[in-house]
Amino acid sequence: MAFFKPSIPPTRDSSTSGEVYVTMGPMFAGQTTTLLRPIKLEGNNGRNVAMIKSSKDMRYAIDSVVMHDGVKFSCWALSDLSSFRV
C-alpha cells in the first residue's frame, strides 16, 4: 500500500489552505483505515475536516465512507473535485 501526501503551495489566505491525502493500494490493504487516521486526529484537535469521495463510489453509502467492519464516516460525494467549495 502506498501513502502519498502531495506538496501544495501555500495560499495567501491561510484560513483556506489545507492538505490533500491520497491513499492507494489493492483491496483490503487498509487504505480507508490509513486515510481516516489523520482525519480523526485533526477533527479531534478542533480543525475543520472535509472528506470527499467520488460520486461513482456507491458501494455502501452515497454520503459516507464505510470501512469493511461497517464503521461509517460522513463525506461529500462529488462528481468533480473542482466543484468542492469551502
UniProtKB/TrEMBL annotation:
InterPro entries for this protein: P-loop_NTPase, Thymidine_kinase
Top-level division of the source organism's lineage? Eukaryota
> What keywords are assigned to this protein?
ATP-binding, DNA synthesis, Kinase, Nucleotide-binding, Transferase
Query: What reactions does this protein catalyze?
Result: thymidine + ATP = dTMP + ADP + H(+)
Q: Name one GO biological process term.
A: thymidine metabolic process
Does this UniProt record's set of keywords contain Nucleotide-binding? yes
Q: What is this protein called?
A: Thymidine kinase
Organism source for this protein?
Malus domestica
